[in-house]
Amino acid sequence: MTFFMRRFRLAAVLSGVVAAAAALAADRAGDAQDPAADALARDIFKQLIEINTTDSAGNVTTAAEAMAQRFRAAGFPAADVIVAGPEQRKKNLVVRLHGTGKHKPVLLIGHLDVVEARREDWSTDPFEFIEKDGYFYGRGTLDMKSGDAIMATALLRLKREGYRGSRDIILALTADEEGGCCNGAQWLVRNHRELIDAQFVLNHDGLVGYSITSEQGIPQEFDLSATEKMYADYQLTVTNRGGHSSLPRSDNPIYQLSEGLVRIGRYAFPVELNEITRAYFERMARVRSGQTAADMRAITRTPIDAEAVARLSREPDLNSLMRTTCVATRLEGGHANNALPQRAQAVINCRILPGHSKEEVRKELIGVLSDPAISVRYVADDGSLSDTAPEQRTQSPSPLLPQVLEPLESTVAAMWPGLPVVPFMNAGATDGFYTRAAGLPTYGVAGIAVDRDDVRAHGRDERVRVTSFYRGNEFFYRYLKALTAVR
Amino acid sequence: MTAGTCAGAAFLFTAVGCAASAVAADAGSASNALARDMLAQLIAINTTDTPRGNVTTAAEAMAQRLRIAGFPSEDIWVLGPSERKKNLVVRLRGAHEHKPLLLIGHLDVVEARREDWSTDPFQLIEKDGDFYGRGTLDMKGPNAIMLASLVRLRQEGFRPARDIILALTADEEGGGANGVQWLVQHHRELIDAQFVLSGDDYSVLTENGKPLFFKLVASEKVYADFELRVINKGGHSSVPVPDNAIYSLTRGLDRLAIYEFPFELNAVTREYYRRRADLESGQRSADMRAILRDPPDGQALERLSRDPVERSITRTTCVATRLDAGHANNALPQRAQAVVNCRILPGHSPEEVRQRLVQVLADPAITVSYLASDGTRLDTAPAERGFAPPPLLPEMLNPLDQLVAETWPGLKVIPSMSAGASDATHTSAAGLPTYTFSPLSVDPNDDREHGRDERISVASFYQANEFFYRYLRTVTAR
Q1: ipTM score of the complex?
Q2: pLDDT tens digits for A239-258?
Q3: I need a labelling partner for A247 at 20 to 30 A (CA). Which of A92, B146, B269, B308 fits?
Q4: A344 contacts in B (CB within 8 Å)?
Q5: Which numeric CATH code is attached to A230-386?
Q6: Are A347 and A327 in contact (CB under 8 A)?
Q7: How is domain B6-221+389-475 classified at the architecture level of CATH?
Q8: pTM more than 0.90
Q9: Chain A residues whose beta carbon lies within 8 Å of the beta carbon of residue B244
């Protein structure tokens, strides 16, 4: 998934929701690690990294089968280990660990595919699992084979223990989150709802394979992703009859486009908070100090304080939490240096707040451009263009269910005393889009910590800290248990 | 056409009238047939700068024709720096009373794709009174006319007062082996001359078939491409930051779009407006006179500048022609760039214009580099100034004035500045006064140079052939 970074430092302040006493009591337990579970997770992690699951040369089915084999070997009945999908190379794995059935199941999702990685760009082979200087290196170490390994390990561990929780735990490891023909989460929702139906969903993709932002290894905040913006690309086009460049005219598509883009660059969509971002600002107001803290409080009140908004908007990450954003990302124009351009085009990439549609934003762009010569077309995922965009509005944020939030806060408090849990809206898109669309409340949760200036997802030399991987492994096991505890 | 009928002759050679003898008309029609034949052959030889094109083939074919026409082999040279890019030089020997006259024309053409055209661009098609084919106008038509005129003079046994040299060359339209430049640098002795006539522009501008004036290009602007570039660290597009390479660039382009370079006239453009004012009427004529005053009338200038042609004659122009930015829809752009194409008035240098662009863009984040013709990017541009227009030599201009008046009664020769650059740049750089004209009639609104279905009027082609022969004869008579 696409990631999100914050720049501010956090004061070491307790989240008000977390009881300090609970944190202290759990401190000792927080340091405990199970060496056998760590070894298993590492083994699965290595196996996954070394199976190429890119959309180009890779094969997701190979990874799904390898995991299925482990579950069968661990005693999961064949009927509870399903490998299915619409395409030979893009199959998904669905595993079920039965509980008492007191509550509806919890669904865990993770994508098996990874983005491309070229050997020549990397210092090491991206499809070789390498431990070096306290890090695991390889494509997918962060996004998100670490999470896949951790979720699989948790299930195997619970199975080995003979654990029976209050609800079934379903794990779906899927294809094509990063792009490709056959998004597995979407396919399962549409074609095998019965296999994955649940009360709520945990997506280990989190921010981008992690939920804890750290600084020099010190955790600063745990972001609970409860909603996400919708991704949309638009193409702006101006055409002209062109001509010889020795005779410039006043009508030039490059200049027309430029003027429009300058207006887009100056425009800010209206500020709008939802349940999640409101909770985010309320909680962060306790973490931040001074003017920023006051501003965060001010924007959660109605009417919204315009000056507070203006000040907060200067921080790009906060800005993107408060409003839909649209930004020009590409330009193309002209066909020869010595010819007046016949065409000028730009791509505008938008991240749309929940509750709004792509068509609504397209119309807003037309209004901002205020030049009928500039056409605004929607660019679909497959690159095709259409004159209008989908009218469908994004789902509302998932409600902050107590049965999700409370065990999370207690588990976090036990393992990272004082670490605030902050509801969060992803600026990027994940498979949570499909599960939310299916009416399943979805939360991005991962116990992995990444330094805010070292997020290498989709980049070269992708890595995860070894200690963070093992802590994340332990966290998820404990959280699952807390979540499904029979009370 | 058949010879001997005054009506037929008058149809083609309006002002020649019945004074032309039947013998002359015979020679004229033979020359027309030859010119057409050579045009057909030149069009059929692909001379694009592509793997399919070969300028040498065209140069050799024309050399062969000249040999057959009786030019001695020692006066014909086919030479050049590359196997496919050879040039033809031929000399019609004269009395050496003056330094030679050099005629230049480029053999190469710009690319033409069959699927874009209504006919095969590499086949001469005569249809509805027009010749169609790539290069009919730019400039295999003028080449055929120059060749046919030279052959006609030779076959008549004409002995000019000075040698007439014709150079048909490679890579004017681009490519690494510009023939004129190469000849000037490596074989100056073959092409040295008192002055140069280039056929690389049609001269009789018409509107609805009616000739407006005869354009004699005596100066040209300097061509320069600049690259505007903004570099940024980029980032993820889900978190836009205020510092965006595309917005920096487009804000700069907004400023460039409204900027006007200063108004400036030179000897040629002054003469141009002096003569044009006589042809125009009303406000337009008054405005042309008004900008010739010192200081020029601001309102007149503003009105005239609304016409892109007048604007390009009175100012350096720079216009954005290309844009390129970003690398992925979902990533903030790390780079945004534009190409700005400038046409610089004589007396100014590309570096001067580059520095002006830097001022106009008014943003240190936008770097402005010079793009050399081979595409290399340079931090600074050449500091040489464009050549001041050459003096309008009476021995060149007087016969032209006279012949134009005879051919198109009432039509005036108007000295002009070309907004584009041609091979005249290279001869001018070598110190050879260069004038460009080709007596073809073209409606500027139907100028298909470099475009699809390029064409010239058949009648105009034959008329120009006769005109050019007579001009050559007159200009070298004494």
Answers
A1: 0.79
A2: 998 888 989 999 999 999 99
A3: B146
A4: 323
A5: 3.30.70.360
A6: no
A7: 3-Layer(aba) Sandwich (3.40)
A8: no
A9: 265, 327-328
